[in-house]
Amino acid sequence: MANLTFDEAKCLHSINQDKPSVYRNMLQAISKSFKLISPTSLFYGFGANSVMKVTEVSDCFVGTGDLLNPIVMTDNLEHEYNECLKRVELNLPVKFAGLIRKAVEFAEKSAQHFLENED
């Protein structure tokens, strides 16, 4: 999740289902395409307080709200995103380094897993 403004008229993130959202459209497209590959997805976000009014801005947080389980059903990605928006407080600064590190870590583990299980 990324946010460059908190102005409701310009914000990419809205739980208002009646308001057009390019971000929501993107999630629908990703979900539709990715479910052909995997029934589950890892759901992480960035640039928000994971506990409203309590925590500092998280560079990378679990979108499900469960630190031990970042996995969601790919068909439910949009629903999980909307639930996440209700739980977190979008905030600045948005720093991508933690998210990029996590993506590299997943890629390295995936490559290692597939290389170890190669016949």
Rg for CA atoms: 15 Å
Record field, number of beta strands: 7
What share of the residues lie within helices?
A: 25-40%
Mean pLDDT: 77
Q: Output the strand order for the largest sheet.
A: 4-3-7
Low-confidence stretches: none
The protein's oligomeric status is single chain
| Secondary-structure class | alpha+beta
N- and C-termini, Cα separation: 38 Å
Give the overall silhouette. Answer: globular
Q: How much strand?
A: 5-15%
Q: Note the total helix count.
A: 3
Q: How is the main sheet built?
A: 3 strands, antiparallel
Helix and strand string, N-terminal first?
HEEEEEEHEH
Notes on the structure:
This protein has 119 residues and is α+β, with helices and mostly antiparallel strands. Helix content is 37%, strand content 13%. It is built from three helices and seven strands; from the N terminus they run αββββββαβα. The strands form three sheets. A three-stranded antiparallel sheet has the order 4-3-7, with helices on one face. A hairpin with a 7-residue loop joins strand 3 (48-49) and strand 4. The longest helix has 20 residues, at 97-116. The mean pLDDT is 77.
